[in-house]
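fold-stage: in
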Amino acid sequence: MPLNQTIVRSHDRTNMKTLQDRIALVTGATAYIGRAAALELARRGAHVVVNGRNAHSGHAVVDEIQSAGGRAEFEAADLTDREAVRAMVGRIVQRHGRLDVLVASGAGASSDSLAFKLFMEMEGADFETYIRSHWLSRAHAIQAAAAAMRAQRHGKIVAIGTDAGRVATVGESFIGGATGGMMQMCRVLARELGRDGIRINAVAMSYIWDAEPRWGGGSPALAGAHGQGMIDNLRKRMLFPVHCADIAQAAAFFAGPESDAITGQTLSVNGGLSTPG
């Protein structure tokens, strides 16, 4: 096949409804990366369940999807509350009979999350906050979704994390440590859940150009204006800008049939900031 035809066919496929009629849950979908993922999955034909704690923002994303001709609904649940997440997934399965896709985002960069903090300046409560937001929030969603997917012996799970889980970064010992644990968990689960026809992969990112940082409580030596010093340094080191839509495209790839032969992998979408192996 001529190269130009191959390119055209590849481009056409990205515009096909590759997720037509799939039931997809996107956690933390009320803003930024989660919102972008919800919009992209809906564009590809999925019926998207938009999750978040803020009902007003969640319904705004649902309206945005429906205005574009897609299908969506809102489900409220705190991702750090295991029982609330399990109940949410139960309601989804009760309404739709199944759950096909999970994109586990959110919690890690919400307004009540800690930012860059030097290890020796942390309190014990800080450790728990990082672990809950960057790891346990994903674990709760993945466990609940996988329980539903096992019944149909098929499912796609995508966990969104940070490259701090792959690359040692000053000020992100527990952000990176918790995310690194989450990524290792996903690699193990790829083996465990694969027997049930479930694929699980991760997308890692660094600075996102169109996502306003919402953290507070970082170390003064690193933070400047709420982390602005570290953020400016990241921007300078990146070769290409990365936007929420770029992370969403990667998540949609892992959610769709194009990635059926891939599981247990982490894809860094970081604009060339680093090249982890």
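fold-stage: in (second)
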Amino acid sequence: MVKVAVLCGALLALSACTSKSATDTSTDNESKQLQTLRIAAAANLSDVLPEVIDGYQIANQLSKDNIEVTYASSGKLYAQIIAGAPYDMFLSANQEFPAKLADKIPKDSTTHQPFTYTQGQLALYSVNKPLDGFSPKALSDMLLSDSSSKIAIASPELAPYGASAQSYLQAQKLYDPLVQQKRIIQAENIGQAFQYAYTGSVDYGFVAQSQIIAINAKPEQFITLAPESYPAILQDGIIISDKPATIDFTNYLRSAEGQRYFSQAGYLTVQ
């Protein structure tokens, strides 16, 4: 009888633990479902972030409406956050804006520190002019000599990809001549710069490699610029709220699975 009682007790304990574990998992998922995660994301992420979010939602069995994303230039999003916009996370296209934002968040929270989630690549894109086979010098000569052409870059003040494009042109001693010739068209963000080039409104556009990958551009339509030819486009994010879902999504973003989406989309992965 004693053995039977002990066995029954063990079975009851095991059943209780199993039930508790299942309840905890269910509660965690319900908690994530109830928390709408609001993300402010740089415009260059509009092609890859939806896929990352889909992967995250599938992995966690979440509904499709628990994450809301606003895409704009990093500078514009930073200004919105400073003005009180209710975002839970900011995914910038550079490191500067999250670092500035960290200075305005109380120092007693270790979660409110910037983290690098990917590295972008810069490309030159055109639907009007063939670009295949150009060496860096030939490319520079072509941009300078094609005096009737217009070149779109994102605003260097607002968009990190625009700042890198400006640095690239300055290193090639092209920026000042192109500005004097009034051939540079500044877009508000990298998405707009891409649209100018994609529609043929300009002859060339300095765009994100991820945008090129997203449309399966033909090889003759773009050149991926050497990463060492412009400042590294390290993209940082920062957690703004203390929602558990925010930290959970950040971990997924930086995981091997999350990084796989970025790599497939034309970014350089980070550790």
